[in-house]
Amino acid sequence: MLKISRIVRPKKLQFKRASFVAVRLRSFSFTSTYQKMADTKSARDPIVEALHEFTTCDVSDALCKLKFRNGGFLSGLIMWSPERQSGTTKIVGPAYTVKYVSNDDPTPKLSYHYIDSVPQGAVIFVSCPPRVPNAVYGGLMSTRAQASGAVGSVIDGRFRDVQEHRDLNYPIFARDTGTSPPAELVKVVGVNVPVKLATNDQDMTVNAGDYLIADLNGVVVLPKALAEQALPLMKKQVEADSKMAEEIKKGMSFTEASKKFRN
């Protein structure tokens, strides 16, 4: 922040009051801008900021210590954009959940399009019934999501328009691709509601506001209620693993390193 030190006026020089006022006004403007920037930064979710320092594996390790099933791993979801299972892309944010159901479900269809109410910083999680061959997410969805400030989308089903997402450099994690639109088979009935993972392999639920972390390793859900307990465990584990790696490179056995740094 700009600070104005005491103004020393030589006896022979005369300063106009207008000049002094201008300096004070410039200082006030700079201070106000700085304060706005600080306010914006402080408004960010500190848990999201902290999670950017860790991989999905780090998050799962911590959740396993907290006895959360499968370490929060959501099976079958891989990166498709900006690249397929390549690069350093990672997304972190609170889940904005979207629930698709079969058209024969009596629940009424959502009266508006879910993509127009995505909050900034969210990870969109689209839930779809198992074995639906149609895509439930496409390029225009990512175009709108990106414009709204979403950080990426996780599709528990199929998506289409692969190149459009890649051209946007917009992160997509999904089960698979498709070509047909969803309307003939499924409909959206809710947003920001609990959704079940569309697989028989796991019994996993994603709740609105839970933290989603996705990278090359896969997708992990960190329940909001466990986040503050999990973060210190991640830090401790990463520090221990780093020390283990250093000693193993020097010749220490894995068993010795584990006893020394993990116990």
TrEMBL record:
Pfam families assigned: RraA-like
GO terms for MF: 4-hydroxy-4-methyl-2-oxoglutarate aldolase activity; metal ion binding; oxaloacetate decarboxylase activity
Keyword Magnesium: yes
Keyword flag Ribonucleoprotein: no
Residues bound to Mg(2+): D161
Keywords, in A-Z order: Magnesium, Metal-binding
Cofactors named for this entry: Mg(2+)
Binding site for substrate: G138, G139, L140, M141, R160
Superkingdom of source: Eukaryota
Protein known as: DlpA domain-containing protein
Annotated organism of origin: Pyricularia oryzae (strain 70-15 / ATCC MYA-4617 / FGSC 8958) (Rice blast fungus)
